[in-house]
Amino acid sequence: xxxxxxxxKGGQFCxxxxxxxxxxxxxxxxxxxxxxxxxxxxxxxxxxxxxxEGQTAEEFIARADALNDKVPGANPGRVVDSISDxxxxxxxxxxxxxxxxxxxxxxxxxxxxxGTALSGAVKGVSFDKNGSITLPFTSMGYPYxxxxxxxxxxxxxxxxxxSGHDGRLVANVADTxxxxxxxxxxxxxxNYTLPEGKWVTIAxxxxxxxxTLYVDGQKIGVAExxxxxxxxxxxxxxxxxxxxxxxxNADGAIASLVLYNRVLSDSEIAELADxxxxxxxxxxxxxxxxxxxxxxxxxxxxxxxxxxxxSDSRWSSKRATGTSNEGTSDVGSKEQWLMVxxxxxxxxxxxxxxxxxxxxxxxxxxxxxxxxxWTTLKSVTxxxxxxxxxxxxxxxxxxxLRIYCREPKTARYVSPSMNCRPLVKRPRLL
Length: 430
Fold this sequence. Notes:
Layout lengths: L27 H19 L10 H11 L18 E5 L8 E2 L9 E4 L2 E2 L6 E5 L3 E3 L4 E2 L3 E9 L7 E5 L2 E4 L9 E4 L2 E4 L10 E7 L4 E5 L2 E5 L1 E2 L15 E2 L2 E4 L2 E10 L5 H7 L13 E4 L25 E2 L19 E11 L1 E7 L5 E9 L6 E6 L6 E5 L6 E11 L5 E2 L1 E6 L8
Antiparallel strand pairs: 1-19, 2-3, 3-6, 4-5, 5-19, 7-17, 8-13, 8-19, 9-10, 9-18, 10-11, 11-12, 12-16, 13-14, 14-15, 20-22, 21-28, 22-27, 23-26, 23-29, 24-25, 24-27
């Protein structure tokens, strides 16, 4: 096409963000992340961009990547410059004159406001509702991982573990009793309640879709939107990590804070928490189900293939309600189940289930040694889908694990993934 041809009126693109109309959780940062590349392409094409001799697409993308997140005077990508993937690291036991040095080599020293150094086994800093920590960067865009130890003597809605212009990480979000965060008019909560008076290691892994919580090295799941979204949409639960102020209004202590500019693996996060890495006993084991959705590749084995949050890697039952235009042979009953043979007898510690929007509101987690006689390990009611972690402190003997669904949230049950882990002796964290 000739340059500046009179019939060329310009260029355009669309971003279907539906930021507010459907209530699915999109943030302004999500929208920016989705349109930034298109802006650069359209700009190059409509501002007389010319291909130079020998230029490749890879070179263009490299130049775009160098400019699309941060330039002098503007940092929409919330980039925190770093010499390695370790962006900042703080040993609060080394506090001196109200400051803690950044051990990452980046020089992001922290300022302690009205904090007291701990003298016990845990080297940290404590606050009594009147102090805070200030970092020299205001926020961090995804991808990232942040890990820290915290002990709160009071868990309430005023306690902001991290806060700033881009949001708040709150000890008790929206009076749910759960750890969660607020941003862009939304409130999100994890299925986890912070204990009072006990040290725990918290890790958050943020990417372009989810913010996943780990406690003491164990995956709890992704944050759940507390707003009633149309069609139960789960578009985004991302968090641009606010780092302007830490431990604001906190009655408690913090220790061992590290931030990475990538999403760490499960094993890396477990190592940060100093807990043993435990295998997923269900991974690629034989799985069966009461039914599978007709005409789709959503078979039981997809629930234990180790791939999470992938629309093509999931088990789906037949429609459970019978209210569809499919033939009667394609419609199942309301009660459906998914079973995995662990191929040996174990005492289970954890069962993790990741549901799609189509999920069970009531179900039983059952165990068996022979596949015929079943014991209910846990009965779940009032479930809302998403990622659910179930813990078992009492010994059990399980070779066959079954998720027996009793009430559907929509027309069918869909579980993208499931895993379970053995009961092990964990080191006690002080």
